[in-house]
Write a structure and sequence with these properties.
Elements (H helix, E strand, L loop, with lengths): L1 H38 L8 E4 L13 E4 L1 H6 L1 E4 L5 E6 L2 E8 L5 E6 L5 E4 L3 E4 L9 E8 L2 E8 L14 E7 L3 E3 L4 E9 L5 E11 L4 E11 L2 E8 L7 E11 L3 E12 L2 H44 L1
Parallel strand pairs: 1-16, 2-4, 2-15, 12-18
Antiparallel strand pairs: 3-10, 4-5, 5-6, 6-7, 8-9, 9-10, 11-13, 13-16, 14-15, 14-17, 17-18
């Protein structure tokens, strides 16, 4: 009887050890899965300027997106546009979206994705009340020059400039915060502008994204007054780029046609969520295997204990 009690105690202890091992392995797999999930997402801290287009832009994969800030619209911006290009105009903290359609020598049609449609004839200015408040807000002018379609967009009757009577010198640094992005996630980039001149300067900024073939996929245009240093983080969450290698760069124009540029490469992968799903599948099947191994070991131990219990009484 004492021998049976001892065997039972040993059996219980062994089962407890196996259960602990199984539990620890389960925790390890779970932690690995959590680490992979966390590594696939990036959080940026700082002032975030978000550029977003509502809706699915899959149909615009081969076309460009032009983002014009309010400060740029004040002085006006000429754009070389093609059919299918998308204009994102930021005016009075509102975003207005247009798709370029039917550009020809006679004129151009701007289909409003979330607002009205604008028809502009060649060499004729068209002013628009974009927010339906009874006052004109935007002016469009369209020209066809040497087989290029040039569209001028500017805020109506709002034009200003800042000029300094002193030497100006600038530098710019671009740094990709999350160099690994997927087709459906966002790209976060840090921009820093250094003013080494003798006073504040007005700079015109172009944000460019090009693919590995050098084709321009995105152009954003902005304007800032920089005194000594200006840093901010810009989030691009509507690019919908196909997997591949890309370059994000910025070009600034200041002073007497002086320029400064900087850029950095980044890579677009397939949907990173697919990797998380794959890890979850591995975790699920791994748990099943562990349970199976646990049951198998337990059955073998039980068989050995049964054999031992049968042999011991016979010896006695």
């Amino acid at each position: 009887m004492d021998e049976k009690i001892k065997n039972l105690i040993l059996k219980i202890k062994l089962n407890i050890r196996i259960t602990k091992v199984f539990f620890l392995l389960t925790i390890v797999i779970f932690l690995i899965n959590c680490c992979v999930f966390v590594s696939s997402s990036t959080t940026a801290t700082s002032e975030v300027i978000t550029s977003s287009i509502d809706g699915d832009l899959d149909e615009y994969d081969n076309n460009r997106i032009f983002e014009l800030s309010h400060s740029v619209l004040r002085i006006g911006q000429e754009i070389n546009v093609n059919n299918g290009d998308v204009l994102q105009l930021i005016l009075y903290d509102n975003i207005y979206l247009f798709e370029v359609n039917d550009s020809s020598k006679e004129g151009i049609i701007l289909n409003g994705l979330l607002n009205k449609t604008v028809i502009v004839e060649t060499n004729v200015s068209r002013v628009v009340d974009i927010n339906n408040d009874g006052e004109f807000d935007l002016e469009f002018r369209y020209n066809f020059v040497e087989d290029n379609y040039i569209l001028l967009v500017k805020e109506y009757y709002r034009n200003y400039s800042i000029k300094g009577n002193y030497s100006e010198l600038f530098d710019v640094i671009v740094s990709v915060v999350n160099g690994r992005v997927d087709r459906n996630s966002f790209l976060t980039v840090s921009f820093t502008f250094y003013n080494f001149g003798e006073g504040p300067s007005l700079i015109n900024i172009s944000y460019l994204i090009k693919n590995e073939s050098g084709n321009e996929m995105y152009r954003g245009i902005d304007q800032k007054v920089v005194y000594t240093e200006e840093s901010f983080i810009k989030t691009f969450d509507f690019l919908n780029l196909v997997p591949g290698d890309y370059t994000i760069s910025t070009e600034i124009l200041y002073g007497e046609n002086q320029t400064a540029t900087s850029g950095e490469r980044f890579k677009v992968y397939e949907d990173l969520n697919d990797n998380n799903d794959f890890v979850l599948i591995i975790f699920f099947f791994g748990a099943i295997v562990l349970i199976f191994v646990f049951i198998l070991i337990k059955n073998r131990i039980n068989k050995r204990e049964d054999v031992r219990n049968n042999i011991v009484p016979n010896i006695k």
